[in-house]
Amino acid sequence: MRVPFIDLTALHSELSSELGEVWKAITASSSFIGGEYVEKFEEQWATYCGVNHCVGVDSGTTAIELALKALGIGPGDEVIVPAFTFIGTAEAVAAAGARVVFADVNATTLLMGADEIRQVMSERTAAVVVVHLYGQPADMDAISSFAQAAGLAVVEDAAQAHGAKWKGRPIGGGSDACCFSFYPTKNLGAFGDAGAVATNDGALAERIRLLSNHGRPRQSNDLHELIGGTHRLDALQAAVLSVKLKRLDSWNAARARAAHRYRELLLGLPLHLVETADGASSSHHCFVIESSHRDAIQQELAMAGIASKIYYPVPCHRQTAFHAQHVPCLPVSENAARRVLSLPLFPHIGEEQIKLVVENVHRALALSCEQLSAV
């Protein structure tokens, strides 16, 4: 048996008929940019996130960049970002013209919180980008309270947190702007690159919409109020997302069941499971273990035909793209980068597949212990 890291074929087979109808309708209308499908999905996603506005864009990275620009963040400003995240979070800050300041993360959850933000902020800090890593929401109550007192804008990177909740509230309305990626492997994935910004601020949403479409207001193709760019959401991607959105909650529930089963079967092994904070309801985008024998485990899994991924082997502050004269010491992020491993997790993963993964984790740890004993 081979276990893929994610099985998009099984997921799409559920929806083949609906997706085929969407494709026929869009090709027949030749309406590929904007239009009713984009407007429909924006309305649906805003409702799902419990906010008043949604603007579809071309990627999650773009969503963060445009949100920061629309908030007036740019040259001369500093924006705090967790070091342990996908580099796109930091890239978006740099693209907006601001200086990236990296913060460490909590050792238990691997999330940046109010304490970590406080340790690196300065008089030039204008905003923070909070990442809901692996699908687990950060403590938005504490972060929002701290940011409000300090006069900071808050942007959420929820690229991995579709359907996650904090204290029963959907991720999306706890900040100035919440940014999503719909890359195909996300819990809610398109057929290519796509993203969105959710917000309760109507003026902010309209400014993001202008920036995404050459600065043009909706009622005109010939007037340009701002210098923007081509960052629109395609009609096809929007239509695909609308079809998939109907299944998101059931897919997330299946992910949760699989994650729970992993925890049961891995109980007692000499490894650490990334914990879920009180009040957090994860979307279970990834199931992550931490081990000093990470590389041996991954090698054993690969030999058994089981895919796994490391998110992320090099923290952002250690990436060449962000090397500065002074590289900050962020020990939790650096330690996590040496130890984390994501196991296969997707809605259609079966009991036998989970057992096979766990059996090979057992085997790898047993072999590692034997080798240590022989030294």
List keywords for this structure.
Aspartate Aminotransferase, domain 2, 375 residues, 14% strand, Aspartate Aminotransferase, domain 1, alpha/beta
Quick summary:
This protein has 375 residues and is α/β, with parallel strands linked by helices. It has helices at residues 8-13, 16-29, 36-49, 60-70, 87-95, 114-120, 140-150, 202-212, 235-245, 248-266, 294-303, 331-339, 351-374; strands at residues 53-57, 78-82, 99-103, 125-131, 153-157, 165-166, 169-170, 177-181, 195-199, 272-273, 280-281, 287-290, 340-343. It has 2 domains: 8-245, Type I PLP-dependent aspartate aminotransferase-like (Major domain) (Aspartate Aminotransferase, domain 2), CATH 3.40.640.10; 248-374, Aspartate Aminotransferase, domain 1, CATH 3.90.1150.
Description:
- The chain folds into two domains: 238 residues, Type I PLP-dependent aspartate aminotransferase-like (Major domain) (Aspartate Aminotransferase, domain 2, 3-Layer(aba) Sandwich), CATH 3.40.640.10; 127 residues, Aspartate Aminotransferase, domain 1 (Alpha-Beta Complex).
- By secondary structure, it is an alpha/beta fold.
- The chain is globular, with a radius of gyration of 21 Å.
- The protein starts with 7 loop residues before the first helix and ends with a helix.
- Strand 4, helix 7 and strand 5 form a beta-alpha-beta unit.
